[in-house]
Amino acid sequence: MWRDVSLTMFLIALIASSVLPPFRKTKRKPVPFDPARPYRAYTREFDIEIRSEELDSFLATLSDAERSWVKRYPAVDPAPLFALEKDLAARAATDRKTPASGEATDTLVTLLIDHSGSMRGDPILFAARAALVASDLLKRLGAKHEVLGFTTVRWRGGRSREKWQTDGRPPYPGRLNDLLHIVYCSAGESLTAQRCAPMLMPGLLKENIDGEAIAWAAARLRQRAERRKHLIVLSDGAPVDDSTLAENGERYLHHHLPEQVREIEAAGDIRIAAIGIGEYPVAHSYRDGIELGAPEQLESTVVALIERLLNESA
């Protein structure tokens, strides 16, 4: 009996397979990227610019769902930053090198640090160390400097995406995540370990929208009166925000980045350079780009780049 039932079921399946089309899971077609469409943000009303001292209380306001993934990643110990700060102070007390020159005092250098999720761990720790070393060097030279960071408020879209969905999901909406731009040290200040320690918070590092971050840093530079302006970008990967790329094409953010860099290079009022962490090929987007094999090389590379840029501008 069971043999007859099995044979019958087999024959039914064989006939159905020859008549009915095979079942396929429907997959959404990717949105084609159109380089002719100008870059835009769907809305800027949810973008945030914040001082590093406010980060702890700000991140605490995020939803439990947004913060739950943080538990998967160990926190980075900020103790090495405070130890480095003490070491730099001790060195400065015995340093009798060339005092600040008039050229340096008319100079402003901005260090812009990528806060993407892939920077978690050693890369962000060494970026913070490099920022402290750079701040100490520029202070001794008499040059003003800023240290800035960029990421997004949430993963894969934030309130911007929610607004787009409420509006009926119009096609090609532009950037669909909320920017989070962080000021660790503004011109006229010096970076401290206390100020840059929040850089190591595991809940901070999310998506990276480099083109708009560069435009933001350049706008801050242009508000200043110093004649010599330099922008140094530290990054370990191409710009990524899943929510934006899904609705505008995979090359949407990557196309915008070199556009912004070329505009700054063409204007000539700001010298822009980049350091690629982990062999990220920054030369694809920046005329002046340096690629590192490991984050441990950041400190010495940042110092050498600052000294070169200041010598060339002088």
Assign the CATH superfamily. Answer: von Willebrand factor, type A domain
Q: Give the count of structural domains.
A: 1
Order of helices and strands: HEHHHHEHEHEHHEHHEEH
Backbone structural class:
alpha/beta
Question: In the CATH classification, which architecture applies?
Answer: 3-Layer(aba) Sandwich
Shape: globular
Count every beta strand, where a strand is a DSSP E run of 2 or more residues. 7
**What is the radius of gyration computed over CA atoms, rounded to a whole number of angstroms?**
25 Å
Strand order of the biggest β-sheet: 1-4-3-2-5-6-7
CATH class, named Alpha Beta
What proportion strand? 5-15%
Total of DSSP H or I helical runs spanning 4+ residues: 12
N-end to C-end Cα span: 96 Å
The CATH topology comes to Rossmann fold
How helical, in percent, are the residues?
A: 40-55%
Show unreliable segments.
1-26
The biggest beta sheet is recorded as: 7 strands, mixed
Arithmetic mean of pLDDT: 88
Describe the structure.
Mean pLDDT is 88; it is low at 1-26. The protein has a 7-stranded mixed β-sheet with strand order 1-4-3-2-5-6-7, with helices on both faces. The relative contact order is 0.16. The longest helix has 20 residues, at 122-141. It has 12 helices and 7 strands. It starts with a helix and ends with a helix. It has 314 residues and is α/β, with parallel strands linked by helices. The chain has helices at 2-19, 55-59, 64-68, 79-94, 102-105, 122-141, 159-166, 193-196, 210-222, 242-248, 252-267, 298-313; strands at residues 48-51, 107-114, 144-152, 179-185, 228-235, 271-276, 289-291. 42% of the residues lie in helices and 14% in strands. The protein has a single domain (52-92, 102-313), classed as Rossmann fold, CATH 3.40.50.410.
